[in-house]
């Protein structure tokens, strides 16, 4: 696909896999990071000259706009914007979630995504269209207890994707989401290692139609597909990539 892809959260576990997948298809990939510059620089070095690390803090609307402008100036017109950022979230039950925790995740993820949309739309309009893809969660379709803090803002993100798809389609702009199931990467890898007894995860594995957990690369392939011209007639949708967990 032509143009530059900007991956917000590109230094994270899933974000790194998305950057690698898009590098195989795009003219350039901007690796957005907030604090993990070392990882972003290392990933850029592994990908090669078409990758460019750039700081992008979801709490800073002006900073996001500056990051997008920097990437466009350095790498070429932005045609793809991926939202893979978020908060490191535990698995508390709703009854134990205090208001500051709700505010943190909603401010970072949902309000952060509104800032990404606001900064990205002018670029995609100027460049005759393009694609947003947000990484959300299968919890909005098969809710596991303890996942509200993660799934509630991601449900809103999916709704915002549909709004962008409906309102901006006339400009050639598409917006979709990818909802991963249980993934052995990023936060998911930490959960599999540290959260709950192994027997609990074995029970969850048996719930999955394909009888295994997913990989970061499998999520990245779905993201790359929705961002590509192969999905040019798909917009406002959520692609559930969960191995059949939600069936």
TrEMBL record:
It comes from the Bacteria. It holds the Pfam family adh_short_C2. InterPro entries: NAD(P)-bd_dom_sf, SDR, SDR_fam. SUPFAM superfamilies: NAD(P)-binding Rossmann-fold domains (SSF51735). Transmembrane segments: none annotated. Belongs to the short-chain dehydrogenases/reductases (SDR) family. This is SDR family oxidoreductase.
């Amino acid at each position: 696909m032509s143009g530059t892809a900007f991956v917000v959260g590109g230094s994270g576990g899933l974000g790194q896999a998305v950057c690698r997948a898009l590098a195989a298809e795009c003219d350039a990939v901007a690796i957005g990071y907030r604090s993990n510059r070392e990882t972003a620089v290392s990933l850029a070095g592994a990908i090669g000259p078409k990758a460019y690390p750039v700081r992008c803090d979801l709490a800073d609307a002006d900073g996001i706009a500056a990051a997008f402008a920097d990437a466009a100036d350095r790498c070429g017109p932005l045609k793809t914007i991926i939202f893979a950022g978020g908060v490191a979230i535990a698995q508390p039950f709703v009854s134990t979630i205090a208001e500051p925790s709700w505010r943190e995740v909603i401010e970072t993820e949902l309000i952060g995504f509104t800032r990404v949309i606001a900064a990205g739309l002018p670029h995609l309009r100027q460049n005759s269209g393009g694609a947003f893809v947000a990484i959300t969660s299968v919890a909005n379709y098969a809710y596991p207890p303890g996942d509200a803090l993660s799934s509630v803002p991601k449900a809103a993100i999916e709704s915002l994707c549909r709004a962008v798809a409906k309102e901006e389609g006339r400009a050639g702009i598409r917006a979709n989401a990818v909802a991963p199931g249980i993934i052995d990467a990023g936060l998911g890898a930490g959960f599999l290692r540290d959260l709950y007894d192994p027997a609990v995860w074995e029970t969850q594995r048996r719930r999955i139609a394909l009888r295994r957990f997913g990989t970061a690369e499998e999520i990245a392939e779905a993201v790359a597909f929705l961002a590509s011209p192969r999905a040019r007639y798909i917009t406002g949708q959520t692609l559930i990539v969960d191995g059949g967990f939600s069936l």
